[in-house]
Amino acid sequence: MSLIEAPRTPTRGRRTGGINWEKWGWIYMRASGVVLVVLIFGHLLVNMFLGEGVKAIDFAFVGGKLSDPFWQVWDGLMLWLALIHGANGMRTIVNDYATNPKVRTVLLAGIAVSTIILIALGTLVITTFDPCPAGADPALLASFCEAL
Amino acid sequence: MPEKSASNLVAEPQSPPKIRSPKRPAGTLYRGNEGMWSWVLHRITGVSIYFFLLVHILDTALVRVSPDAYNIVIDSYKTPLMGLAEIGLVAAIGFHAINGLRIILIDFWAFGAKHQRTLFWVVIGIWLVLLAGFIPRQLMHVFGG
Lengths: 148, 145
Ligand code: HEM
Known about the structure:
The structure holds 2 protein chains of 2 kinds.
Chain A: H1 21-49, H2 59-66, H3 69-97, H4 101-128
Chain B: H1 2-9, H2 33-61, H3 67-77, H4 80-108, H5 110-114, H6 116-143
Helix pairs in contact in B: 2-4, 2-6, 4-6
InterPro entries (chain A): SQR/QFR_C/D, Succ_DH_anchor, SuccDH_FuR_B_TM-su
Pfam family, one (chain A): Sdh_cyt
Pathway (chain A): Carbohydrate metabolism; tricarboxylic acid cycle
Protein backbone atom coordinates (compact mmCIF):
# COMPACT_ATOMS: atom_id res chain seq x y z
CA MET A 1 0.00 0.00 0.00
CA SER A 2 1.41 3.33 -0.89
CA LEU A 3 0.55 6.27 1.34
CA ILE A 4 1.80 8.93 -1.01
CA GLU A 5 0.20 9.31 -4.41
CA ALA A 6 2.58 9.25 -7.31
CA PRO A 7 3.35 12.79 -8.49
CA ARG A 8 1.36 13.94 -11.51
CA THR A 9 -1.31 11.29 -10.96
CA PRO A 10 -3.85 12.13 -13.63
CA THR A 11 -7.24 13.09 -12.25
CA ARG A 12 -9.05 11.53 -15.17
CA GLY A 13 -7.10 8.31 -15.35
CA ARG A 14 -4.93 7.20 -18.19
CA ARG A 15 -6.40 7.26 -21.66
CA THR A 16 -6.80 3.76 -23.07
CA GLY A 17 -7.06 3.68 -26.83
CA GLY A 18 -9.21 5.96 -28.96
CA ILE A 19 -8.18 9.06 -30.82
CA ASN A 20 -5.46 11.13 -29.14
CA TRP A 21 -7.16 14.53 -29.51
CA GLU A 22 -4.46 16.42 -27.63
CA LYS A 23 -1.87 15.15 -30.07
CA TRP A 24 -3.94 16.20 -33.07
CA GLY A 25 -4.56 19.58 -31.46
CA TRP A 26 -0.81 19.99 -31.04
CA ILE A 27 -0.24 19.06 -34.68
CA TYR A 28 -3.07 21.36 -35.80
CA MET A 29 -1.49 24.37 -34.01
CA ARG A 30 1.69 23.87 -36.02
CA ALA A 31 0.14 22.95 -39.38
CA SER A 32 -2.36 25.82 -39.28
CA GLY A 33 0.39 28.16 -38.06
CA VAL A 34 2.52 27.57 -41.16
CA VAL A 35 -0.43 28.18 -43.50
CA LEU A 36 -1.56 31.23 -41.50
CA VAL A 37 1.83 32.89 -41.92
CA VAL A 38 1.21 32.98 -45.70
CA LEU A 39 -2.50 33.89 -45.43
CA ILE A 40 -2.11 36.62 -42.79
CA PHE A 41 0.99 38.28 -44.25
CA GLY A 42 -0.66 38.24 -47.69
CA HIS A 43 -3.81 39.75 -46.15
CA LEU A 44 -1.82 42.50 -44.40
CA LEU A 45 0.26 43.19 -47.51
CA VAL A 46 -2.78 43.76 -49.72
CA ASN A 47 -4.98 45.57 -47.18
CA MET A 48 -2.46 47.61 -45.20
CA PHE A 49 0.75 47.99 -47.21
CA LEU A 50 0.10 48.17 -50.95
CA GLY A 51 -1.77 51.05 -52.57
CA GLU A 52 -3.23 53.48 -50.08
CA GLY A 53 -3.18 51.01 -47.20
CA VAL A 54 -5.85 51.26 -44.51
CA LYS A 55 -7.11 54.53 -45.98
CA ALA A 56 -8.45 52.69 -49.04
CA ILE A 57 -10.58 50.23 -47.07
CA ASP A 58 -14.33 50.76 -47.51
CA PHE A 59 -17.33 48.81 -48.78
CA ALA A 60 -16.23 49.10 -52.42
CA PHE A 61 -12.75 47.76 -51.57
CA VAL A 62 -14.16 44.74 -49.74
CA GLY A 63 -16.78 44.31 -52.48
CA GLY A 64 -14.04 44.14 -55.09
CA LYS A 65 -12.11 41.52 -53.14
CA LEU A 66 -15.02 39.33 -52.04
CA SER A 67 -16.47 39.13 -55.56
CA ASP A 68 -13.30 37.31 -56.61
CA PRO A 69 -13.30 33.54 -55.88
CA PHE A 70 -9.56 33.73 -55.17
CA TRP A 71 -10.08 36.08 -52.20
CA GLN A 72 -13.24 34.24 -51.12
CA VAL A 73 -11.20 31.06 -50.68
CA TRP A 74 -8.30 33.01 -49.13
CA ASP A 75 -10.50 34.76 -46.56
CA GLY A 76 -12.56 31.64 -45.88
CA LEU A 77 -9.46 29.58 -45.14
CA MET A 78 -8.08 32.36 -42.97
CA LEU A 79 -11.36 32.57 -41.03
CA TRP A 80 -11.52 28.85 -40.25
CA LEU A 81 -7.83 28.23 -39.61
CA ALA A 82 -7.21 31.35 -37.48
CA LEU A 83 -10.36 31.12 -35.39
CA ILE A 84 -9.91 27.43 -34.58
CA HIS A 85 -6.18 27.98 -33.92
CA GLY A 86 -6.94 30.92 -31.63
CA ALA A 87 -9.79 29.11 -29.86
CA ASN A 88 -7.66 26.02 -29.25
CA GLY A 89 -4.85 28.25 -27.94
CA MET A 90 -7.31 29.96 -25.60
CA ARG A 91 -8.48 26.52 -24.44
CA THR A 92 -4.89 25.70 -23.44
CA ILE A 93 -4.60 28.96 -21.53
CA VAL A 94 -7.94 28.47 -19.73
CA ASN A 95 -6.86 24.95 -18.73
CA ASP A 96 -3.60 26.42 -17.40
CA TYR A 97 -5.09 29.14 -15.22
CA ALA A 98 -8.76 28.35 -14.44
CA THR A 99 -8.41 26.01 -11.46
CA ASN A 100 -12.07 26.21 -10.40
CA PRO A 101 -13.89 23.47 -12.39
CA LYS A 102 -17.09 25.52 -12.73
CA VAL A 103 -15.29 28.62 -13.97
CA ARG A 104 -13.29 26.48 -16.36
CA THR A 105 -16.38 24.81 -17.80
CA VAL A 106 -18.07 28.18 -18.34
CA LEU A 107 -14.99 29.66 -20.04
CA LEU A 108 -14.45 26.63 -22.28
CA ALA A 109 -18.13 26.60 -23.26
CA GLY A 110 -17.92 30.33 -24.02
CA ILE A 111 -14.95 29.77 -26.31
CA ALA A 112 -16.69 26.88 -28.09
CA VAL A 113 -19.99 28.71 -28.59
CA SER A 114 -18.41 31.98 -29.79
CA THR A 115 -16.19 30.05 -32.19
CA ILE A 116 -19.12 28.17 -33.75
CA ILE A 117 -21.22 31.35 -34.08
CA LEU A 118 -18.39 33.42 -35.61
CA ILE A 119 -17.37 30.69 -38.07
CA ALA A 120 -20.99 30.33 -39.18
CA LEU A 121 -21.42 34.10 -39.46
CA GLY A 122 -18.16 34.65 -41.35
CA THR A 123 -18.79 31.77 -43.75
CA LEU A 124 -22.30 33.04 -44.41
CA VAL A 125 -20.98 36.53 -45.18
CA ILE A 126 -18.29 35.25 -47.55
CA THR A 127 -20.62 32.92 -49.45
CA THR A 128 -23.77 35.08 -49.67
CA PHE A 129 -22.16 38.49 -50.06
CA ASP A 130 -23.54 40.81 -52.79
CA PRO A 131 -21.02 43.49 -53.81
CA CYS A 132 -23.72 45.45 -55.69
CA PRO A 133 -26.78 45.49 -53.43
CA ALA A 134 -29.91 46.84 -55.16
CA GLY A 135 -30.89 50.35 -54.17
CA ALA A 136 -27.53 51.27 -52.62
CA ASP A 137 -25.83 54.59 -53.42
CA PRO A 138 -23.68 53.78 -56.51
CA ALA A 139 -20.92 56.06 -55.16
CA LEU A 140 -20.34 53.58 -52.32
CA LEU A 141 -20.01 50.52 -54.58
CA ALA A 142 -17.19 48.98 -56.58
CA SER A 143 -16.88 50.49 -60.10
CA PHE A 144 -17.91 47.22 -61.83
CA CYS A 145 -21.41 47.59 -60.35
CA GLU A 146 -22.16 50.33 -62.90
CA ALA A 147 -22.07 47.79 -65.73
CA LEU A 148 -24.96 45.86 -64.20
CA MET B 1 16.50 34.59 22.14
CA PRO B 2 16.89 30.95 21.25
CA GLU B 3 18.99 31.65 18.17
CA LYS B 4 21.61 33.55 20.15
CA SER B 5 21.97 30.81 22.74
CA ALA B 6 22.20 28.20 20.00
CA SER B 7 24.96 30.08 18.24
CA ASN B 8 26.89 30.13 21.47
CA LEU B 9 27.01 26.37 21.42
CA VAL B 10 27.90 25.95 17.74
CA ALA B 11 31.09 27.31 16.23
CA GLU B 12 30.24 30.28 14.02
CA PRO B 13 31.36 29.61 10.42
CA GLN B 14 33.95 32.20 9.43
CA SER B 15 33.49 31.96 5.64
CA PRO B 16 30.19 31.93 3.77
CA PRO B 17 28.92 28.46 2.83
CA LYS B 18 30.73 27.01 -0.18
CA ILE B 19 27.60 26.10 -2.14
CA ARG B 20 25.29 28.99 -2.89
CA SER B 21 22.05 28.80 -4.77
CA PRO B 22 22.32 30.62 -8.11
CA LYS B 23 21.14 34.25 -8.14
CA ARG B 24 18.81 33.43 -11.03
CA PRO B 25 17.79 30.23 -12.79
CA ALA B 26 20.48 29.08 -15.14
CA GLY B 27 17.82 28.85 -17.85
CA THR B 28 16.23 25.97 -19.66
CA LEU B 29 13.93 25.99 -22.65
CA TYR B 30 11.03 27.14 -20.48
CA ARG B 31 12.53 28.72 -17.36
CA GLY B 32 14.44 31.97 -17.41
CA ASN B 33 15.97 34.06 -20.15
CA GLU B 34 15.02 33.90 -23.82
CA GLY B 35 13.11 30.61 -23.63
CA MET B 36 10.72 31.90 -20.98
CA TRP B 37 10.25 35.41 -22.31
CA SER B 38 9.55 34.18 -25.82
CA TRP B 39 6.81 32.00 -24.31
CA VAL B 40 5.37 34.91 -22.28
CA LEU B 41 5.31 37.13 -25.37
CA HIS B 42 3.83 34.34 -27.50
CA ARG B 43 1.01 33.88 -25.00
CA ILE B 44 0.23 37.61 -24.59
CA THR B 45 0.29 38.26 -28.36
CA GLY B 46 -1.83 35.13 -28.98
CA VAL B 47 -4.56 36.30 -26.60
CA SER B 48 -4.47 39.87 -27.96
CA ILE B 49 -4.87 38.86 -31.60
CA TYR B 50 -7.58 36.37 -30.63
CA PHE B 51 -9.75 39.15 -29.18
CA PHE B 52 -8.94 41.38 -32.12
CA LEU B 53 -10.04 38.60 -34.48
CA LEU B 54 -13.43 38.30 -32.74
CA VAL B 55 -14.07 42.03 -33.29
CA HIS B 56 -12.63 41.94 -36.80
CA ILE B 57 -15.03 39.18 -37.93
CA LEU B 58 -17.97 41.16 -36.53
CA ASP B 59 -17.01 44.46 -38.17
CA THR B 60 -16.34 42.80 -41.53
CA ALA B 61 -19.71 41.02 -41.31
CA LEU B 62 -21.30 44.49 -41.61
CA VAL B 63 -20.69 44.29 -45.40
CA ARG B 64 -23.66 41.92 -45.36
CA VAL B 65 -25.83 44.55 -43.62
CA SER B 66 -25.33 47.57 -45.86
CA PRO B 67 -22.56 49.65 -47.48
CA ASP B 68 -23.37 52.49 -45.07
CA ALA B 69 -23.17 50.36 -41.94
CA TYR B 70 -19.75 49.04 -42.98
CA ASN B 71 -18.36 52.42 -44.03
CA ILE B 72 -19.48 54.18 -40.84
CA VAL B 73 -17.65 51.66 -38.65
CA ILE B 74 -14.54 51.51 -40.85
CA ASP B 75 -14.39 55.33 -40.99
CA SER B 76 -14.35 55.38 -37.20
CA TYR B 77 -11.12 53.35 -37.45
CA LYS B 78 -9.48 55.94 -39.71
CA THR B 79 -8.19 58.13 -36.89
CA PRO B 80 -4.52 58.78 -35.96
CA LEU B 81 -5.02 56.88 -32.68
CA MET B 82 -6.34 53.77 -34.46
CA GLY B 83 -3.57 54.14 -37.05
CA LEU B 84 -1.05 53.81 -34.21
CA ALA B 85 -3.00 50.96 -32.62
CA GLU B 86 -2.77 49.13 -35.94
CA ILE B 87 1.02 49.33 -35.66
CA GLY B 88 0.71 47.58 -32.29
CA LEU B 89 -1.50 44.97 -33.88
CA VAL B 90 0.93 44.27 -36.71
CA ALA B 91 3.76 44.14 -34.16
CA ALA B 92 1.84 41.55 -32.10
CA ILE B 93 0.89 39.37 -35.08
CA GLY B 94 4.40 39.72 -36.50
CA PHE B 95 6.03 38.49 -33.29
CA HIS B 96 3.52 35.65 -32.80
CA ALA B 97 3.91 34.47 -36.40
CA ILE B 98 7.72 34.56 -36.53
CA ASN B 99 8.14 33.10 -33.04
CA GLY B 100 5.51 30.46 -33.96
CA LEU B 101 7.85 29.35 -36.76
CA ARG B 102 10.69 29.25 -34.17
CA ILE B 103 8.56 26.98 -31.95
CA ILE B 104 7.98 24.66 -34.92
CA LEU B 105 11.71 24.57 -35.71
CA ILE B 106 12.44 23.71 -32.05
CA ASP B 107 9.83 20.92 -32.06
CA PHE B 108 10.86 19.19 -35.28
CA TRP B 109 14.57 19.90 -35.63
CA ALA B 110 17.36 19.02 -33.16
CA PHE B 111 19.33 22.05 -34.33
CA GLY B 112 16.37 24.27 -33.42
CA ALA B 113 16.13 22.94 -29.85
CA LYS B 114 19.88 23.30 -29.34
CA HIS B 115 19.98 26.86 -30.63
CA GLN B 116 16.58 28.08 -29.39
CA ARG B 117 18.25 31.04 -27.68
CA THR B 118 20.00 32.22 -30.83
CA LEU B 119 16.79 31.62 -32.78
CA PHE B 120 14.96 33.97 -30.40
CA TRP B 121 17.29 36.81 -31.40
CA VAL B 122 16.88 35.85 -35.05
CA VAL B 123 13.10 36.19 -34.49
CA ILE B 124 13.61 39.65 -32.94
CA GLY B 125 15.84 40.62 -35.88
CA ILE B 126 13.32 39.57 -38.53
CA TRP B 127 10.56 41.24 -36.51
CA LEU B 128 12.47 44.54 -36.41
CA VAL B 129 13.02 44.40 -40.18
CA LEU B 130 9.29 43.77 -40.65
CA LEU B 131 8.39 46.76 -38.47
CA ALA B 132 11.02 48.96 -40.13
CA GLY B 133 9.26 48.24 -43.42
CA PHE B 134 5.72 48.61 -42.14
CA ILE B 135 5.80 51.54 -39.70
CA PRO B 136 6.95 54.29 -42.15
CA ARG B 137 4.42 53.05 -44.69
CA GLN B 138 1.58 53.08 -42.16
CA LEU B 139 2.54 56.55 -40.85
CA MET B 140 2.50 57.76 -44.47
CA HIS B 141 -1.00 56.35 -45.00
CA VAL B 142 -2.36 57.69 -41.70
CA PHE B 143 -0.68 61.10 -41.47
CA GLY B 144 0.27 61.75 -45.14
CA GLY B 145 -2.00 64.05 -47.16
C1 HEM C 1 0.49 33.95 -38.16
C2 HEM C 1 0.71 32.68 -38.01
C3 HEM C 1 0.67 31.97 -36.69
C4 HEM C 1 1.60 31.07 -36.29
C5 HEM C 1 2.85 30.60 -37.06
C6 HEM C 1 1.21 30.59 -34.98
C7 HEM C 1 1.87 29.61 -34.27
C8 HEM C 1 1.53 29.17 -33.02
C9 HEM C 1 2.15 28.08 -32.33
C10 HEM C 1 3.28 27.21 -32.88
C11 HEM C 1 1.58 28.00 -31.10
C12 HEM C 1 2.00 27.07 -29.98
C13 HEM C 1 1.09 25.95 -29.72
C14 HEM C 1 1.62 25.07 -28.62
O1 HEM C 1 2.47 25.49 -27.81
O2 HEM C 1 1.20 23.91 -28.59
C15 HEM C 1 0.56 29.02 -31.02
C16 HEM C 1 -0.23 29.27 -29.91
C17 HEM C 1 -1.25 30.18 -29.89
N1 HEM C 1 -1.69 30.96 -30.93
FE1 HEM C 1 -0.82 31.10 -32.73
N2 HEM C 1 0.06 31.24 -34.58
C18 HEM C 1 -0.32 32.08 -35.60
C19 HEM C 1 -1.46 32.88 -35.63
C20 HEM C 1 -2.34 33.04 -34.57
C21 HEM C 1 -3.57 33.82 -34.61
C22 HEM C 1 -4.09 34.59 -35.82
C23 HEM C 1 -4.13 33.74 -33.37
C24 HEM C 1 -5.40 34.38 -32.87
C25 HEM C 1 -6.54 34.19 -33.42
C26 HEM C 1 -3.27 32.91 -32.55
C27 HEM C 1 -3.52 32.60 -31.23
C28 HEM C 1 -2.77 31.72 -30.49
C29 HEM C 1 -3.01 31.42 -29.10
C30 HEM C 1 -4.10 32.04 -28.22
C31 HEM C 1 -2.05 30.46 -28.72
C32 HEM C 1 -1.88 29.80 -27.36
C33 HEM C 1 -0.69 30.39 -26.65
C34 HEM C 1 -0.23 29.61 -25.47
O3 HEM C 1 -0.67 28.46 -25.26
O4 HEM C 1 0.62 30.14 -24.75
N3 HEM C 1 -2.20 32.49 -33.32
N4 HEM C 1 0.55 29.73 -32.20
